[in-house]
Amino acid sequence: MGRRNRLTGWQFAQAIDAIQILYCKLLVTPVCQRLDWDYWHDSAKQLDVDHPTTARQLTPDELSYLKERKGEGPLKEVRAAHHDLLVRFAREIRRRGYAYRTEQSYEQWISRYILFCKGLPPEQTGASDVKLFLEYLVIKRHVSASTQNQALNALVFLYNRVLERKLGELESFVRAKRPRNLPVVLSRNEVMTLLESLKGIHKMLASLLYGTGMRLLEGLRLRIQDVDFAYHRIHVHQAKGKKIGMYRFPTHSQRVCASRLKWFDNFIIR
Questions:
Q1: pLDDT tens per residue, range 187-245
Q2: Residue 129 contacts by C-beta under 8 Å, 6 or more apart in sequence?
Q3: Are strands 233-236 and 245-248 parallel, antiparallel or unpaired?
Q4: CA–CA separation, 195 and 203 (whole Å)
Q5: Has domain 59-162 been given CATH number 2.40.50.870?
Q6: Separation in Å, CA 78 to CA 35, 64, 92, 100, 116
Q7: Any idea what the Cα angle at residue 36 is, between residues 9 and 205, rounded to 5°?
C-alpha cells in the first residue's frame, strides 16, 4: 500500500490503525506481538518537500516554487522576489555535487543576506555589505563561529560561482569567538545504556551510526547488499560528495543487525 503514489500519509496511517485493530483487538493473533507498530506509524508520516531524501527528485525551479508557497514571513517574500537568482544558485550547487544539507543552509543564508540588505539584489551589493552582515550576525544575533563561517561560505559561493564576480578580500570584521571548553560527551557505559533502551529498527540504526561513524542519511539509505558480515565492512554508495565510501563494521553493530535481520526473516516465513 505504501508504494501507491496516490495514497496520502493520513490514508496509510488509517490503514495501519485498521489492521492493528483487526489483529490485536478482534482476532488477537501472534502477529500483533511480532509487528513493530510504532515503526509503521512513523512510516506513514509524509516527508516535507525539502526533505534531503526526496528534495533532489524535484528540479531547482519546482523546489523553489514549493518553498515560496510553504514559507511564511519576510523570507517568503525574498524567495518570491529573487526566484530566478535562487534557481540559478540551486543549479550551480547541484552541478558541483554539494550535499543537499549544504544547499539548504546556503539558500537560507543567501535569503537572509538579501533581507538584511533590504531586498536589494546581490548584484547591487558587495564586500562592504557582506562584512556588515557578518558582523550583524555576531553582535546582534550572537551566532557561533561555525555559523558565521557557514554564512560567509554561502555568500562567497554566491558571488564567486553563481554571479561569477569576485568578492575580493574582506577587510577585518568582528568574528565570533570559539569556545575553549572541552565538549561534553557520553561515556561508553552511557552510550550502551542509551542503545539498550531503543527497540527494533531504531536500535539497529542507532547502533550502526554510533559503531561506524557514518552520517544519518548514509545509514537511512543502506541496503542489505551493502552490509558485508564476512569482511566486517559496510559499503556506502551515496556518501558525501556522491562518492563511494566504506566503513568498518563493529562486532556489536553486527550482533544487533543480525538479530534484527533474523527477526525479519522469521516473520516473513511465518
A1: 989 999 999 999 888 888 999 999 999 988 888 888 888 989 899 999 887 666 666 78
A2: 113, 116, 117
A3: antiparallel
A4: 6
A5: no
A6: 47, 11, 20, 21, 10
A7: 90
- Residue the block writes with cell 523553489: 64
Q: Which amino acid is at 96?
A: R
Helical segments of the chain, H only: 9-21, 31-34, 37-43, 60-70, 74-81, 83-95, 100-116, 127-139, 145-157, 188-196, 200-212, 216-220, 251-269
Q: What is the rounded CA–CA span in Å between residue 101 and residue 160?
A: 20
Structural domain boundaries in the chain? 9-43, 59-162, 200-269
Q: In residues, how long is the chain?
A: 270
pTM score over 0.85: no
Grid-cell match 543549479, residue found:
91
